Amino acid sequence: MGLIIRTDKAPQPAAAYAQAVVGGDMIFVSGQGAMNPATSSIDAISIEEQVTQALRNVVAIVETAGGSKENIVRCGVFLADLNDFAAMNQAYKKCFGATLPARTTVQAGLGTLCVEIDAIAVRRRMRARGQTTKSHRLAATAKPRRRS
Predict the structure, then answer these.
(1) So what CATH class is 3-141?
(2) Whole-prediction pTM
(3) Residues 2-40: pLDDT tens digits?
(4) Domain coordinates of the chain in residue numbers?
(5) 67-72: long-range contacts (C-beta < 8 A, 24 or more apart)?
């Protein structure tokens, strides 16, 4: 099992799961709803506000694990109603800007929640200036393959 991540800057788990688990350089964030960790309630009303709060929770957990918003490479978005897709997409773009992670969006039975978002992030290792990792060198010298 990896390193269990827990922070008071995001809602505490409501069941038997960790907020996130770190395995190697990967951060796996459990699904986060729109609960405000300061009030322990869902204060957001619109879907945009709920997506924004859910993403704040995801980012707080990633930062606690040693990453940043820019390190998020994939999100899974679960909507109670796919009619909320356009509004969710606007809030998602506003949060991530030009560094959009890969994403899957599905409709799901969420009980009283309107949205839940999970994420995967990659922690970047710090290295001395001028040093590269083996995988970095390989990527820099890799040549595209032609399909036959």
Answers:
(1) alpha beta
(2) 0.83
(3) 899 999 999 999 899 999 999 999 999 999 999 999 999
(4) 3-141
(5) 67/27, 67/121, 67/122, 67/123, 67/124, 69/95, 69/96, 69/99, 70/99, 71/27, 71/121, 71/122, 71/123, 71/124, 72/96, 72/101, 72/119, 72/120, 72/121
